[in-house]
Automatic annotation (TrEMBL):
The lineage of its organism: Bacteria, Thermotogati, Thermotogota, Thermotogae, Petrotogales. Pfam families: ABC_tran, oligo_HPY. This is Oligopeptide/dipeptide ABC transporter, ATPase subunit. One of its GO terms (molecular function) is ATP binding. Residues 4-262 form the ABC transporter domain. Gene3D superfamilies: P-loop containing nucleotide triphosphate hydrolases. Keywords: ATP-binding, Nucleotide-binding, Transport. SUPFAM superfamilies: P-loop containing nucleoside triphosphate hydrolases (SSF52540). GO terms for biological process: peptide transport. It comes from Petrotoga mobilis (strain DSM 10674 / SJ95). InterPro entries: AAA+_ATPase, ABC_transporter-like_ATP-bd, Oligopep_ABC_C, P-loop_NTPase.
Length: 335
């Protein structure tokens, strides 16, 4: 079952520069569905709109960022609710039970002058009325931390007394204490060493297993996607250019951009030279006509310079936005 869905979503940064109106098309016509009980990954180079997409679906678009078109549906008690039509007050009530956002650099978000337990208390009491502190706060908190393998001593610590990895795991525990249906995490492993990265990934996996919620995970690290996500979407220049089961995307990438992302991953024993996509991504304030990847694509055809390919299903649940990937061509290539 779908838990969140976007339809033709466009969200742009709109501002004036030197008396000229600028539009940065950071999310440009995105229609995707996220399912219950899955880990959905979003990958793509820096600046392709991943964080903006997350902010938009979490109802956090604030000027200069504006939703200029499209819909965002949450599935609440069997009904699809378009949050772009909700008042701020209605949305605020729904949000924390439904979706929890762990922004980039969140490990520095814990209040530095209070102990961790106080941060948990502030967070829980601002979203829930508590009468019996022991039963409704202390006990569930200890249970939550223990289930996630975090030592209870963190509660007595100040943020600066914890390592970066432990701080990040604590932030994730905080963001998930109210058991939201969707957890949205933006680059949660960046700036951590490999051991701490692994612990954070394991924590996300554990939470998903225990709480059975949906996780939407943004990272440019393809190895993390291979390790943890069930399905994934590849973003390029504000668009989703490929989507499918993670195993299928790694085994059989369709879009030339995805092939570059996967091809640049090191493999054990492989000493061959890794080729990354030539050139750099376009400015989202002045996108090229046609497919935004065509200036960097070694297979670009005439049509790619004129028309923008749509994200269409090529094989079971595997979608691509590329004129090379028409169903017939892919089937021929597989023969
Ligand atoms: N406040 C802002 N005003 C104008 N443009 C912005 C603003 N914030 C981001 N952008 C632009 O929007 C585009 C998408 O940025 P976004 O942060 O969503 O990309 P990203 O894929 O998450 O990159 P990263 O991995 O580096 O965070 C970029 O071109 C960025 O420069």
């Amino acid at each position: 079952m779908e838990v969140l869905k976007t339809e033709k979503l466009k969200s742009y940064y709109i501002f004036e520069m030197q008396e000229e109106k600028k539009e940065v098309k950071a999310v440009n016509d995105v229609s995707i569905s996220i399912r219950e009980d899955e880990i959905y990954g979003i990958a793509g180079e820096s600046g392709c709109g991943k964080s903006t997409f997350l902010k938009t679906i979490c109802g956090l678009a604030e000027p200069p960022l504006r939703i200029v078109d499209g819909k965002i549906y949450y599935e609440v008690e069997g009904k699809e609710i378009d949050i772009t039509k909700m008042s701020q007050e209605e949305y605020r009530k729904l949000r924390w039970q439904f979706i929890s956002y762990i922004p980039q650099g969140s490990m520095s978000a814990l209040n530095p002058i209070i102990r961790i337990k106080e941060s948990f208390k502030d967070f829980v009491t601002s979203h829930k009325k508590i009468k019996d502190e022991e039963k409704e706060f202390e006990e569930p908190l200890k249970k939550h931390l223990t289930a996630l393998g975090l030592p209870l001593r963190v509660l007595k610590s100040y943020p600066h007394q914890l390592s970066g990895g432990m701080r990040q795991r604590t932030t994730i525990a905080l963001a998930t204490i109210l058991n939201p249906r969707i957890i949205v995490a933006d680059e949660p492993t960046t700036a951590l060493d490999v051991v701490a990265q692994r612990a954070v990934i394991q924590l996300l996996k554990d939470i998903q297993k225990i709480q059975k919620n949906t996780i939407i995970l943004v990272t440019h690290d393809m190895a993390v996607h291979a390790n943890i996500t069930d399905r994934m979407g590849i973003m390029y220049a504000g668009m989703f250019v490929e989507e499918g089961e993670t195993d299928e995307i790694f085994e059989n990438p369709l879009h030339p951009y995805t092939k570059f992302l996967i091809g640049s991953l090191p493999k054990m024993g492989d000493k061959s030279y890794k080729v990354s996509a030539p050139g750099s991504p376009p400015s989202l304030a002045s996108l090229p006509q046609g497919c935004p990847f065509h200036p960097r694509c070694p297979y670009a055809m005439e049509i790619c310079k004129k028309e923008r390919p749509q994200l269409v299903e090529i094989s079971d649940g595997h979608k691509s936005a590329c004129f090379l990937n028409s169903k017939e061509r892919v089937e021929d290539a597989r023969k």
